[in-house]
Amino acid sequence: MALPNRVKKLLDDAEQLNDYKDCSAYFYKWLHNEFSKQPVRNLINARAEFIDRLLIKLFHDTGLAQYPEIALIAIGGYGRGELHPYSDIDFLLLVQSPPDEQLKSNLENFVTLLWDLNLEIGHSVQTHEQVLEQKKQDVHFTTSLLESRLICGNHIEFERLKSHIVETPIWRSDEFFIAKVDEQKVRHRKCHGTAYNLEPNIKENPGGLRDLQTIFWVAKKHFHAETLEELISHGYLTHEEYQELLECIENLWNIRFALHLAAGRNENRLLFDHQPNAAELLGFGAEGKASVERMMKRLFRIMSRVREMNQMLLSYFEQSILPDQGEQAVIPLDRNFERVGNKIRVKNPSVFFRREQLFVLFEHIADNPEITSIDPNTIRTMRQVRRRLLGDLQDYAGCRDAFLRLLKHPNGMGRAFTLMHKHGLIAAYLPQWRNIFGQMQFDLFHAYTVDEHTHKLVNNIYHYFDKTQPSDFPICSEIVTRMDKPELLYLAAIFHDIAKGRGGDHSELGAVDALAFCKMHGFTTSDSRLVAWLVKSHLLMSVTAQRKDINDPEVINEFASQVKNERQLDYLYCLTVADIRATNDNLWNDWKNTLLRELYLHAQRALRLGLENPMDMRDQIRDKKRQAKQRLINKGFEEEFIDLSWSRFKANYFTAFSEQQISWQSEHLLKSKDLSQASVIVSEKPLHGGTQVFVYSPYEATLFAKLVSVIGSKKAQIQHAQVMTTKDGYVVFSFVILEVNGNPVASTRANSIRKGIEAVLEDPKKKIRLKKNRSQRFKDFNIKPKIIVRPHARNDRNLIEIQAIDIPGLLTKIAEVFQANSLHIHAARITTVGERAEDFFVVSDDNYQALSEEHKAELHRDLMKKLNAESE
Q: Where is the HD domain positioned along the sequence (predicted)?
């Protein structure tokens, strides 16, 4: 692709820095305009040519051309002649000896001009000896040298360097191969081993450009191949596979090019913020989410193909480059399959004409933990069979039988399921799975596509059964040991989100799909109904635990009545824990673990008492008081004094807290011996999954806003909060707080938070500064606050429900609006679910009456204005 004559002329005529800037601006505008008109390969080659001409011109303008011994050499992607709009420009200035002062000055002028042009450069000035020494230490540098290209200067010095690179016995083929494979493994681990992140890195993710480049680097080092096409003659690629690789490269280049244009900088992460613009540039339309979904599904399909071919080719290379590992014992598995080292191999490719043998292969993987991967010839055969399938594999009776055997196999849902997902067999079996492959999720909770989230969920359940490792979830591990049909739990996991992206309630639609699957596969009516109920109700437990008061007997009784029996409770609990943990690596924490565990135990007790004998709130309060009192008496407190202190609190205090929390709070209050004084307690150790903050103080209308501001200023996150008044005009505030990383607050920080709250109680006029450090992720979601003002059970109060992005200082902003509207807060429940806050407040007006219609409208307007302003 030749540069436009206009660009060449501007570059040739440039003399001042501004001339070069004008030329660059014109060139980038041309790149942008041409993106929709011609192949991306032409454009990335054009940018490399433009940079070549720019460097050559500056090389002469800064006097470097007068030094005949210097060679200006492009390395890395620039060396390949491939530069995306804002890609790094990596080059080496090769000198015969260390530069003198004059040459140093010229070199500095050259580099400074490039920086002034806002170019991202990676450069070094080195002698031959220094290059070879760095090559010994650094495989990354060695890789970049493989793609070196002379831009201008001494070609003899460049050829000498090239011969040294080839002839010097540093990084033999086997060492280089091992280093690049290890490098790839580390890179994949950083991406959590999946290509299906909702904000994927086009270069670094499994299946990204780096995986393609790794194939090329190894081929270039070992086979001295200059193009991937040469791998056909070496017998590693078929012509069809080569064409497929070219198509994958072209697609990834297109998306990366569009991403650079959308971001206006060197960006390789396809962030939510850039996805709509990139999708429009690529021709997927300007329909927002729909356009992004089309683009991302295309991207994930490409990445899946790249990752599979990368694995296949690296396995072939391993057999050639590491021959010692190729001579491994062959162990027959049956008449059709054998194990070679840690790989499974099909003896005769024609065996897959009997489609059920595809699943028999994975049965052998389940039977043999030594098998960790699939032989490259077998991968190639599976790919060919998969593409020639007519209809779904579940249409074959033999495949249904084999799939059920895997589902019931103790190890079937472990590595075998992962490899089936990775190699497209689940999608080939279940038509619904094809619909969720690469399906985006536009919310603040999920980090993965629907199919990858489901795969991780199945994997989490599988780990409940692992007896070789200590369990992080002992209740789940204990439940599955007595579970009569674990396959029903796995089926519920597979179908729980399978209807996402279709419109409508995905739980309802998924339950219908699950019933149809069970009928086709011969499950009993009762088992089919259990699977369908689990799919339909898979959000019930998490919603109840995180959004309702699980210390309220009415909440527990209602939940237990929906669950109906202990068997369904066991299945639902195991599914819920695995589901939340598979949603986002940062979403799970001890607080959520504690909530779910307590809900499970409360519901289990309610079911054992019998739904016809619901737990009574008075019975619960009596039980809690008795247990908490005994703890306090054991510590030396007098029963009369305990009863006197508790007489201040209303019944809701004793339902809101566990006996452990009540005794902990009471112990500190009783020690003060003066219950008229404000008291602040912050637990130094985690209690019920988080750090507990308890404040007891005379009622003051602005106090809630001040407390949440103090906690926010200490960079702690409020996960849960409750507010309740006492019989004698005092107020109790209870917060569960965590660090930003989801861990309980460190003991030293807990002390700092306590002192900060005490300072505000002592000096009500004290101002608290809250830094605005809004997360980038909030910016990527246009989610408007939702505010509902409802009647309350008491006629003199209102219930306010607020759903909003959990921006820093959210509670402070809400409290400021309440204060401006002269509201009294009688109770509050604050819950953070992911990065969304769901808050409930019981309020009255300044005269302790319910809000008038006019007041409700004014409050709604003020809250919307405040929260919308903060979320922008």
A: 443-572
83 and 51 Cβ atoms separated by less than 8 Å: yes
What value does the mean pLDDT of the chain take?
Answer: 89
What DSSP string runs through 724-755? EE-TTSEEEEEEEEE-TTSSBPPHHHHHHHHH
Distance CA 438, CA 295 (A): 10
- Helix, strand, coil percent values for the chain (each to nearest 5): 55, 10, 30
Which 3 state secondary structure label does DSSP give 265? coil
Is 522:529 a contact under the CB 8 Å cutoff? Answer: no
Region for residue 825 given its phi and psi (left: phi exceeds 0; alpha: psi -120 to 50; beta: otherwise): beta
Partners of 803 in beta bridges: 786, 838
What's the rounded Cα separation, in Å, for the pair 345 and 437?
27
Which of 208, 230, 92 minimizes the C-alpha distance to 158?
92
| Exposed/middle/buried for residue 276 (C-beta within 10 Å: 0-12, 13-18, 19+) | buried
Confidence of residue 776 (pLDDT cuts 50, 70, 90): very low
Q: Where are the beta strands (DSSP E) in 605-700?
A: 679-682, 691-698
φ/ψ of 806, rounded to 5, equals -80, 70
Q: How far apart are CA 460 and CA 587, in angstroms?
A: 15
The helix or strand, by DSSP H or E, that contains position 441, with its residue range, turns out to be none
List the domain boundaries for the chain. Answer: 5-170, 177-322, 330-420, 430-614, 616-671, 678-869
CATH class, domain 177-322, is: mainly alpha
Question: What pLDDT does 436 receive?
Answer: 94
**Assigned superfamily of 5-170:** Beta Polymerase, domain 2 (3.30.460.10)
Distance CA 461, CA 322 (A): 37
Amino acid residing at 655: T
The Cα 61–Cα 56 span in angstroms is 9
What confidence score (pLDDT) does residue 774 get? 47
* Tokens of residue 141, six digits: 């540098």
Looking at residue 679, its amino acid is: S
Give backbone dihedrals phi and psi of 534, rounded to 5 degrees, phi first. Answer: -60, -45
Nearest to 490 by CA among 447, 468, 467, 523: 523
Grade residue 834 by pLDDT with cuts at 50, 70 and 90.
Answer: low
Q: What percent of the chain has pLDDT over 70?
A: 94
For 81-110, write each residue's pLDDT tens digit. 999 999 999 999 999 889 999 999 999 999
The structure tokens listed for 108 are: 């500095």
Measure Cα distances from 413 to 464, 496, 515 in Å. 12, 16, 21
Q: For residue 131, what pLDDT is reported?
A: 87
Length of the chain (residues): 872
Mean pLDDT, residues 856-868 taken together: 90
| Paired sense of beta strands 691-698 and 730-738, if any | antiparallel
Residues 6+ apart with CB under 8 A from 114: 55, 58, 89, 121
Provide the 3-class DSSP secondary structure of residue 254.
helix
Q: Which of 451, 452, 479 is nearest to 465 (CA)?
A: 479
CATH architecture for residues 678-869: 3-Layer(aba) Sandwich (3.40)
| CB within 8 Å of 633: residues ≥ 6 apart | 639, 642
Distance in angstroms between the alpha carbons of the first and the last residue of the chain? 43
How many whole angstroms from its chain centre is CA 531? 28
